[in-house]
C-alpha cells in the first residue's frame, strides 16, 4: 500500500516540484497539497497521513510550529531554503531536512528513509520480545530493542542510550519527556532528573543508589519514594 502524503508550502513552484518528484514513486500517494499552512494544519488534524513534506518558512505559522501542534504527527520531511532550522528538525525526529532547490537524488534518499522507517514501524513479524523504539542518530533512524536498554542519561538537549549489546551509547537529540512517552511505563522508570532505568536491569538499590550490571546511578530526591516501592520486585 502506498504511503499517503501531504505537501505544504507557500511557494507554488516548490509544490509543483514535489508533485513531480512524488509521481515518480509508486510507493507514494500525494493526497493533498496546501499553499496555506493553517489549512494544511487543519486537514492533518482531521485526516491520518503517513508522510508530510512541509516548508519551514511560511507566513502564518512555521513548519516547525505546525508539526509541534499535531497530536499524532506523521513522518516529517522538512523543506527550506535555510540551513539554520536543522536543530529543530532533529528535535522533532524528522525523517530528513531538504534544502531548496531540492535535488531529485537528495529527495530520493529522504523518501527511501521514510519508506524504510514505515516498514520497520509497521512490521507484523516482530514478537513481544522485539518491542522497539526508533531514534534519530548519526543522520539516520536507528531501531533500538527495548530489551537491550539498560539506562538513559540526559545530556542537555541530547540523550545517551546505554545498551547491553554495545560498549558505546547511542546519542540522540531528544528530551527525557519525549523518550518516556515512547517507553512502556511498566518497564522503565525515571530515578533522577538525568536518568531513566530499565526495571529488569536493576540488580539492587542501596543508599539511594541503583546498581546495574556495570553502572551505579543516583536516585534523586523527587523519585526516592517510587524507587523504594520497586525494592520488592528486584
Plain-language structure description:
With 234 residues, this protein is of the alpha/beta class. Helices cover 28% and strands 32% of the residues. The strands form four sheets. Strands 2-1-3-4-5 form a five-stranded parallel sheet. A five-stranded antiparallel sheet has the order 10-9-8-12-11. A three-stranded antiparallel sheet has the order 13-14-15, with no helix packed on it. It is elongated, with a radius of gyration of 20 Å. The relative contact order is 0.09.
Helix content: 25-40%
> What is the number of beta strands?
15
**Fraction of residues in β-strands:** 25-35%
Overall pLDDT level: 87
Organism: Pedobacter fastidiosus
Protein name: Response regulator transcription factor
Domain Response regulatory: 4-115
Modified residues (4-aspartylphosphate): 55
Question: Could you outline the blueprint of secondary structure elements for this entry?
Answer:
Elements: E1 3-8, H1 12-22, E2 28-34, H2 37-46, E3 51-55, H3 63-69, E4 75-80, H4 86-91, E5 96-99, H5 104-121, E6 132-137, E7 140-145, E8 149-155, E9 158-163, E10 170-173, H6 176-182, E11 188-192, E12 195-198, E13 204-206, E14 209-211, E15 216-218, H7 224-230
Parallel strand pairs: 1-2, 1-3, 3-4, 4-5
Antiparallel strand pairs: 6-7, 8-9, 8-12, 9-10, 11-12, 13-14, 14-15
Amino acid at each position: 500500500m502506498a504511503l499517503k502524503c501531504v505537501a505544504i508550502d507557500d511557494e507554488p513552484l516548490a509544490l509543483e516540484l514535489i508533485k513531480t518528484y512524488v509521481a515518480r514513486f509508486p510507493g507514494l500517494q500525494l493526497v493533498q497539497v496546501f499553499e496555506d499552512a493553517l489549512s494544511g494544519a487543519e486537514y492533518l488534524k482531521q485526516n491520518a497521513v503517513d508522510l508530510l513534506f512541509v516548508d519551514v518558512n511560511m507566513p502564518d505559522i512555521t513548519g516547525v510550529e505546525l508539526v509541534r501542534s499535531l497530536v499524532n504527527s506523521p513522518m516529517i520531511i522538512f523543506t527550506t531554503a535555510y540551513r539554520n532550522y536543522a536543530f529543530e528538525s532533529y528535535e522533532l525526529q524528522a525523517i530528513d531536512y531538504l534544502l531548496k532547490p531540492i535535488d531529485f537524488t537528495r529527495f530520493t534518499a529522504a523518501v527511501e528513509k521514510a519508506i524504510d522507517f514505515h516498514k520497520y514501524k509497521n512490521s507484523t513479524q516482530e514478537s513481544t520480545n522485539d518491542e522497539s523504539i526508533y531514534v534519530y542518530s548519526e543522520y539516520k533512524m536507528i531501531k533500538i530493542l527495548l530489551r537491550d536498554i539498560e539506562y538513559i542519561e540526559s545530556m542537555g538537549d541530547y540523550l545517551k542510550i546505554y545498551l547491553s549489546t554495545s560498549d558505546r551509547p547511542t546519542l540522540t537529540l531528544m528530551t527525557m519527556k519525549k523518550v518516556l512517552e515512547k517507553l512502556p511505563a511498566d518497564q522503565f522508570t525515571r530515578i533522577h532528573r538525568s536518568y531513566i532505568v530499565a526495571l529488569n536491569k536493576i540488580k539492587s538499590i542501596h543508599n539511594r543508589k541503583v546498581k546495574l550490571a556495570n553502572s551505579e546511578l543516583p536516585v534523586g530526591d523527587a523519585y526516592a519514594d517510587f524507587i523504594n516501592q520497586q525494592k520488592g520486585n528486584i
